[in-house]
Protein backbone atom coordinates (compact mmCIF):
# COMPACT_ATOMS: atom_id res chain seq x y z
CA UNK A 1 0.00 0.00 0.00
CA UNK A 2 2.87 2.38 0.81
CA UNK A 3 4.39 1.93 -2.64
CA UNK A 4 1.01 2.38 -4.34
CA UNK A 5 0.50 5.62 -2.45
CA UNK A 6 3.98 6.86 -3.37
CA UNK A 7 3.49 5.95 -7.03
CA UNK A 8 0.21 7.83 -7.21
CA UNK A 9 1.78 10.91 -5.62
CA UNK A 10 4.83 10.92 -7.86
CA UNK A 11 3.05 10.37 -11.16
CA UNK A 12 0.87 13.47 -11.04
CA UNK A 13 1.73 16.11 -13.68
CA UNK A 14 3.10 19.39 -12.34
CA UNK A 15 2.94 22.80 -13.99
CA UNK A 16 6.13 24.86 -13.79
CA UNK A 17 5.72 28.24 -15.42
CA UNK A 18 4.48 27.64 -18.94
CA UNK A 19 5.50 23.99 -19.05
CA UNK A 20 4.44 20.72 -17.44
CA UNK A 21 6.45 17.76 -16.21
CA UNK A 22 4.94 14.28 -15.98
CA UNK A 23 6.51 13.23 -12.67
CA UNK A 24 7.23 14.92 -9.37
CA UNK A 25 10.47 13.01 -8.82
CA UNK A 26 13.38 14.95 -10.34
CA UNK A 27 17.16 14.83 -10.51
CA UNK A 28 18.77 17.49 -8.31
CA UNK A 29 21.73 19.45 -9.71
CA UNK A 30 25.06 17.89 -8.66
CA UNK A 31 28.38 19.21 -9.93
CA UNK A 32 30.71 16.61 -11.50
CA UNK A 33 28.00 13.97 -10.99
CA UNK A 34 24.85 14.97 -12.91
CA UNK A 35 26.73 15.37 -16.18
CA UNK A 36 25.64 14.46 -19.71
CA UNK A 37 26.98 10.90 -19.44
CA UNK A 38 25.16 10.20 -16.20
CA UNK A 39 21.93 11.66 -17.57
CA UNK A 40 22.27 9.41 -20.62
CA UNK A 41 22.52 6.43 -18.27
CA UNK A 42 19.55 7.70 -16.31
CA UNK A 43 17.41 7.81 -19.43
CA UNK A 44 18.42 4.24 -20.31
CA UNK A 45 17.21 3.15 -16.86
CA UNK A 46 13.82 4.81 -17.18
CA UNK A 47 14.48 8.53 -16.79
CA UNK A 48 12.70 11.02 -14.53
CA UNK A 49 10.33 13.98 -14.69
CA UNK A 50 12.97 16.70 -14.92
CA UNK A 51 16.76 16.79 -14.82
CA UNK A 52 19.03 19.60 -13.68
CA UNK A 53 22.49 20.07 -15.13
CA UNK A 54 25.71 20.50 -13.29
CA UNK A 55 26.47 23.99 -12.03
CA UNK A 56 27.47 26.17 -15.00
CA UNK A 57 29.27 29.51 -14.78
CA UNK A 58 26.95 32.27 -15.97
CA UNK A 59 29.98 34.22 -17.20
CA UNK A 60 30.89 31.38 -19.59
CA UNK A 61 27.51 30.12 -20.77
CA UNK A 62 26.94 32.75 -23.49
CA UNK A 63 30.20 31.72 -25.18
CA UNK A 64 30.30 27.96 -24.50
CA UNK A 65 30.40 25.32 -27.23
CA UNK A 66 27.72 22.88 -26.11
CA UNK A 67 29.39 20.02 -28.00
CA UNK A 68 32.71 20.28 -26.18
CA UNK A 69 32.03 22.08 -22.89
CA UNK A 70 32.69 20.04 -19.77
CA UNK A 71 29.54 21.37 -18.05
CA UNK A 72 27.23 23.21 -20.46
CA UNK A 73 26.47 20.10 -22.49
CA UNK A 74 23.47 17.98 -23.30
CA UNK A 75 21.93 15.52 -25.74
CA UNK A 76 19.21 16.75 -28.07
CA UNK A 77 16.95 13.96 -26.77
CA UNK A 78 16.97 15.41 -23.25
CA UNK A 79 16.71 19.13 -24.03
CA UNK A 80 13.00 19.42 -23.29
CA UNK A 81 13.47 17.80 -19.86
CA UNK A 82 16.68 19.56 -18.83
CA UNK A 83 17.06 22.73 -16.79
CA UNK A 84 20.49 24.35 -16.76
CA UNK A 85 21.72 25.54 -13.37
CA UNK A 86 23.72 28.76 -13.52
CA UNK A 87 26.09 30.23 -10.95
CA UNK A 88 26.91 33.90 -10.64
CA UNK A 89 26.29 37.11 -8.78
CA UNK A 90 26.03 39.81 -11.44
CA UNK A 91 22.46 40.33 -12.72
CA UNK A 92 23.38 41.13 -16.32
CA UNK A 93 25.68 38.11 -16.66
CA UNK A 94 23.02 35.87 -15.18
CA UNK A 95 20.44 37.28 -17.60
CA UNK A 96 22.75 36.80 -20.59
CA UNK A 97 23.31 33.16 -19.61
CA UNK A 98 19.57 32.65 -19.20
CA UNK A 99 18.89 34.08 -22.65
CA UNK A 100 21.36 31.62 -24.20
CA UNK A 101 19.69 28.72 -22.38
CA UNK A 102 16.26 29.76 -23.62
CA UNK A 103 17.51 30.13 -27.20
CA UNK A 104 18.80 26.55 -27.08
CA UNK A 105 15.29 25.23 -26.43
CA UNK A 106 16.04 23.75 -23.01
CA UNK A 107 13.33 23.31 -20.38
CA UNK A 108 14.43 26.23 -18.25
CA UNK A 109 16.92 27.97 -15.99
CA UNK A 110 17.85 27.18 -12.40
CA UNK A 111 19.75 29.65 -10.20
CA UNK A 112 22.24 28.30 -7.67
CA UNK A 113 21.87 29.77 -4.18
CA UNK A 114 23.16 26.67 -2.42
CA UNK A 115 26.83 26.04 -3.14
CA UNK A 116 28.78 26.97 0.00
CA UNK A 117 32.27 26.04 -1.22
CA UNK A 118 34.68 28.76 -0.13
CA UNK A 119 36.08 29.28 -3.63
CA UNK A 120 32.55 30.06 -4.85
CA UNK A 121 31.32 32.16 -1.95
CA UNK A 122 34.35 34.46 -1.95
CA UNK A 123 33.12 35.81 -5.29
CA UNK A 124 29.65 36.47 -3.82
CA UNK A 125 28.08 33.56 -5.67
CA UNK A 126 26.10 30.50 -4.64
CA UNK A 127 25.13 30.42 -0.97
CA UNK A 128 26.89 33.76 -0.36
CA UNK A 129 23.89 35.41 -2.02
CA UNK A 130 21.69 34.23 0.86
CA UNK A 131 23.29 36.90 3.02
CA UNK A 132 21.52 39.68 1.08
CA UNK A 133 17.97 38.52 0.26
CA UNK A 134 16.90 41.87 -1.22
CA UNK A 135 19.79 42.02 -3.70
CA UNK A 136 19.32 38.36 -4.57
CA UNK A 137 15.64 38.92 -5.31
CA UNK A 138 16.55 41.84 -7.58
CA UNK A 139 18.94 39.60 -9.49
CA UNK A 140 16.27 36.92 -9.90
CA UNK A 141 13.82 39.56 -11.16
CA UNK A 142 16.43 40.73 -13.69
CA UNK A 143 16.74 37.19 -15.01
CA UNK A 144 12.96 36.76 -15.03
CA UNK A 145 12.56 39.85 -17.22
CA UNK A 146 15.09 38.45 -19.70
CA UNK A 147 13.36 35.12 -20.44
CA UNK A 148 9.97 33.44 -20.82
CA UNK A 149 10.94 29.82 -20.08
CA UNK A 150 10.60 28.40 -16.55
CA UNK A 151 12.86 30.02 -13.95
CA UNK A 152 13.71 28.01 -10.85
CA UNK A 153 15.92 28.58 -7.83
CA UNK A 154 17.68 26.09 -5.55
CA UNK A 155 18.56 27.44 -2.11
CA UNK A 156 19.54 26.51 1.43
CA UNK A 157 18.25 27.65 4.81
CA UNK A 158 20.80 30.47 5.06
CA UNK A 159 23.88 31.03 7.16
CA UNK A 160 21.98 30.62 10.42
CA UNK A 161 19.63 27.85 11.52
CA UNK A 162 16.47 29.93 11.53
CA UNK A 163 13.32 28.88 9.65
CA UNK A 164 12.32 32.51 9.17
CA UNK A 165 15.23 33.03 6.75
CA UNK A 166 14.17 30.57 4.01
CA UNK A 167 10.51 31.55 4.41
CA UNK A 168 11.37 35.20 3.84
CA UNK A 169 13.60 34.39 0.89
CA UNK A 170 11.03 32.08 -0.70
CA UNK A 171 8.46 34.87 -0.65
CA UNK A 172 10.94 37.29 -2.18
CA UNK A 173 11.84 34.79 -4.91
CA UNK A 174 8.20 34.18 -5.76
CA UNK A 175 7.57 37.93 -5.93
CA UNK A 176 10.63 38.27 -8.20
CA UNK A 177 9.13 35.83 -10.70
CA UNK A 178 10.54 32.40 -9.85
CA UNK A 179 8.30 29.60 -11.17
CA UNK A 180 9.49 26.90 -8.74
CA UNK A 181 11.86 26.40 -5.83
CA UNK A 182 14.09 23.54 -4.72
CA UNK A 183 14.82 23.82 -1.03
CA UNK A 184 17.63 22.00 0.79
CA UNK A 185 16.97 22.68 4.49
CA UNK A 186 20.50 22.90 5.82
CA UNK A 187 22.55 25.93 6.77
CA UNK A 188 25.12 26.93 4.18
CA UNK A 189 28.29 25.90 6.06
CA UNK A 190 26.84 22.46 6.96
CA UNK A 191 28.17 19.73 4.67
CA UNK A 192 25.52 17.18 5.73
CA UNK A 193 26.87 16.81 9.26
CA UNK A 194 23.34 17.14 10.67
CA UNK A 195 19.97 15.88 9.39
CA UNK A 196 18.07 18.06 6.96
CA UNK A 197 15.32 20.04 8.73
CA UNK A 198 12.29 18.80 6.80
CA UNK A 199 9.96 20.88 8.96
CA UNK A 200 11.49 23.93 7.28
CA UNK A 201 10.32 22.59 3.90
CA UNK A 202 6.76 22.64 5.25
CA UNK A 203 7.20 26.25 6.37
CA UNK A 204 8.49 27.29 2.93
CA UNK A 205 5.69 25.46 1.13
CA UNK A 206 3.08 27.19 3.30
CA UNK A 207 4.60 30.58 2.45
CA UNK A 208 4.38 30.42 -1.36
CA UNK A 209 1.97 29.39 -4.09
CA UNK A 210 4.58 28.20 -6.62
CA UNK A 211 5.81 24.56 -6.63
CA UNK A 212 8.38 23.59 -4.02
CA UNK A 213 10.66 20.55 -4.38
CA UNK A 214 12.03 19.13 -1.14
CA UNK A 215 15.65 17.98 -1.12
CA UNK A 216 17.82 16.26 1.47
CA UNK A 217 18.20 12.85 3.18
CA UNK A 218 15.86 10.87 0.92
CA UNK A 219 17.38 7.41 0.46
CA UNK A 220 14.45 4.98 0.42
CA UNK A 221 10.84 5.06 -0.82
CA UNK A 222 9.69 5.42 2.78
CA UNK A 223 11.74 8.61 3.06
CA UNK A 224 10.24 9.99 -0.14
CA UNK A 225 6.67 9.29 0.96
CA UNK A 226 7.30 10.79 4.38
CA UNK A 227 8.73 13.98 2.88
CA UNK A 228 5.75 14.40 0.59
CA UNK A 229 3.19 13.70 3.29
CA UNK A 230 4.73 15.61 6.19
CA UNK A 231 5.92 18.72 4.36
CA UNK A 232 3.27 19.15 1.67
CA UNK A 233 5.99 19.77 -0.92
CA UNK A 234 5.00 19.42 -4.56
CA UNK A 235 7.85 17.10 -5.51
CA UNK A 236 11.15 15.61 -4.43
CA UNK A 237 14.59 16.32 -5.89
CA UNK A 238 16.89 13.32 -5.51
CA UNK A 239 20.62 13.92 -5.21
CA UNK A 240 22.93 11.40 -3.59
CA UNK A 241 20.66 8.35 -3.93
CA UNK A 242 20.12 9.14 -7.62
CA UNK A 243 23.85 8.85 -8.28
CA UNK A 244 24.25 5.74 -6.11
CA UNK A 245 21.20 3.99 -7.58
CA UNK A 246 20.14 5.69 -10.80
CA UNK A 247 17.25 3.27 -11.34
CA UNK A 248 15.37 4.66 -8.30
CA UNK A 249 13.31 7.01 -10.46
CA UNK A 250 11.81 4.15 -12.44
CA UNK A 251 11.60 1.94 -9.38
CA UNK A 252 9.74 4.39 -7.14
CA UNK A 253 7.52 5.83 -9.86
CA UNK A 254 6.32 2.46 -11.14
CA UNK A 255 6.61 0.31 -8.00
CA UNK A 256 8.73 -2.32 -9.69
CA UNK A 257 11.73 -4.32 -8.59
CA UNK A 258 15.08 -2.76 -9.36
CA UNK A 259 16.02 -3.28 -13.03
CA UNK A 260 19.69 -3.00 -12.17
CA UNK A 261 20.59 -5.14 -9.17
CA UNK A 262 23.78 -5.79 -11.09
CA UNK A 263 25.67 -2.74 -9.86
CA UNK A 264 28.72 -3.78 -11.86
CA UNK A 265 26.85 -3.62 -15.17
CA UNK A 266 25.55 -0.15 -14.33
CA UNK A 267 29.01 1.09 -13.35
CA UNK A 268 30.62 -0.34 -16.46
CA UNK A 269 27.94 1.20 -18.68
CA UNK A 270 28.56 4.57 -17.08
CA UNK A 271 32.28 4.11 -17.73
CA UNK A 272 31.52 3.62 -21.43
CA UNK A 273 29.33 6.71 -21.56
CA UNK A 274 31.81 8.89 -19.69
CA UNK A 275 34.49 7.93 -22.19
CA UNK A 276 32.10 8.78 -25.03
CA UNK A 277 31.50 12.33 -23.79
CA UNK A 278 34.77 13.32 -22.11
CA UNK A 279 38.44 13.27 -22.98
CA UNK A 280 40.54 10.67 -21.05
CA UNK A 281 41.79 12.78 -18.13
CA UNK A 282 38.39 14.28 -17.37
CA UNK A 283 36.65 10.95 -17.92
CA UNK A 284 38.85 9.32 -15.28
CA UNK A 285 38.21 12.13 -12.82
CA UNK A 286 34.46 11.96 -13.36
CA UNK A 287 34.32 8.22 -12.82
CA UNK A 288 36.43 8.44 -9.68
CA UNK A 289 34.04 11.07 -8.35
CA UNK A 290 31.12 8.74 -9.04
CA UNK A 291 32.88 5.73 -7.51
CA UNK A 292 32.18 6.82 -3.91
CA UNK A 293 28.45 6.62 -4.66
CA UNK A 294 28.78 3.19 -6.24
CA UNK A 295 30.80 1.92 -3.29
CA UNK A 296 28.34 3.32 -0.75
CA UNK A 297 26.02 0.46 -1.76
CA UNK A 298 28.47 -2.24 -0.76
CA UNK A 299 29.77 -3.91 2.37
CA UNK A 300 33.53 -3.31 2.35
CA UNK A 301 32.92 -0.75 -0.37
CA UNK A 302 36.00 1.14 0.76
CA UNK A 303 38.11 -1.65 -0.72
CA UNK A 304 36.72 -1.07 -4.19
CA UNK A 305 36.78 2.70 -3.69
CA UNK A 306 40.52 2.64 -2.99
CA UNK A 307 41.19 0.40 -5.99
CA UNK A 308 39.32 2.76 -8.30
CA UNK A 309 40.99 5.82 -6.78
CA UNK A 310 44.39 4.29 -7.51
CA UNK A 311 43.56 3.19 -11.06
CA UNK A 312 45.79 4.95 -13.62
CA UNK A 313 43.22 4.93 -16.43
CA UNK A 314 39.75 3.72 -17.39
CA UNK A 315 41.09 0.28 -18.26
CA UNK A 316 42.28 -0.01 -14.67
CA UNK A 317 38.91 1.22 -13.44
CA UNK A 318 37.06 -1.49 -15.36
CA UNK A 319 39.44 -4.17 -14.10
CA UNK A 320 38.90 -3.05 -10.50
CA UNK A 321 35.12 -3.15 -10.86
CA UNK A 322 35.09 -6.54 -12.54
CA UNK A 323 37.47 -8.08 -9.98
CA UNK A 324 35.53 -6.81 -6.98
CA UNK A 325 32.11 -7.95 -8.24
CA UNK A 326 33.40 -11.37 -9.29
CA UNK A 327 33.17 -12.32 -5.59
CA UNK A 328 29.48 -11.33 -5.33
CA UNK A 329 29.81 -8.69 -2.59
CA UNK A 330 27.02 -8.12 -0.08
CA UNK A 331 24.77 -5.19 -0.90
CA UNK A 332 23.57 -2.69 1.70
CA UNK A 333 19.87 -1.96 2.03
CA UNK A 334 20.61 1.69 2.79
CA UNK A 335 23.76 3.33 1.37
CA UNK A 336 26.69 4.14 3.60
CA UNK A 337 26.24 7.90 3.97
CA UNK A 338 29.86 8.30 5.07
CA UNK A 339 30.83 7.86 1.43
CA UNK A 340 28.09 10.15 0.11
CA UNK A 341 29.74 13.53 0.63
Largest sheet: 8 strands, parallel
CATH architecture of the largest domain: Alpha-Beta Barrel
Spatial arrangement of strands, main beta sheet: 3-10-9-8-7-6-5-4
Distance between the termini: 33 Å
The fourth-level CATH homologous superfamily of the largest domain is Aldolase class I
Query: What coarse outline follows from CA principal-axis ratios?
Result: globular
> Percentage of helical residues?
40-55%
The chain-level mean pLDDT equals 94
The CATH top-level class label of the largest domain = Alpha Beta
**How many structural domains are formed by the residues?**
2
How many E-type strands? 10
- Give the radius of gyration: 19 Å
| Helix and strand pattern | HEEEHEEHEHHEHEHEHEHHHHHH
Number of helices: 14
Strand portion: 5-15%
| Low confidence ranges | none
- The SS-based structural class is alpha/beta
> CATH topology of the largest domain, anyone?
TIM Barrel
Verbal overview:
The chain has helices at 2-10, 36-44, 91-103, 118-121, 133-146, 164-176, 198-207, 221-231, 240-244, 248-254, 263-277, 280-295, 301-309, 314-325, and strands at residues 14-16, 19-21, 25-27, 51-57, 82-87, 108-113, 151-158, 180-187, 212-214, 235-238. It is of the alpha/beta class. The chain has two domains: 2-254, Aldolase class I (TIM Barrel, Alpha-Beta Barrel); 263-339, Bacteriocin As-48, Chain A (Up-down Bundle). A hairpin with a 2-residue loop joins strand 1 and strand 2 (19-21). The longest helix is centred in the last third of the chain and has 16 residues, at 280-295. The chain is globular. The mean pLDDT is 94.
Amino acid sequence: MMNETLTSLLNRPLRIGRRTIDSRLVLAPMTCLGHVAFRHLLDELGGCGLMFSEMCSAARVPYENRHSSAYFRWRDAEAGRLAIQILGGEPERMAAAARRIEREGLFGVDINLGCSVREICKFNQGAALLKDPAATARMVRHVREAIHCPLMVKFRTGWEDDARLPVDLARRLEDAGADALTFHPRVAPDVRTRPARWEYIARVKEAVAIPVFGNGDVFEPEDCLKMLQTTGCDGVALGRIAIARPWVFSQWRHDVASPAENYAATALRLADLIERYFEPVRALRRFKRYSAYLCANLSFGNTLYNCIRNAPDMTGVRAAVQAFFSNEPRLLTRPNVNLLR
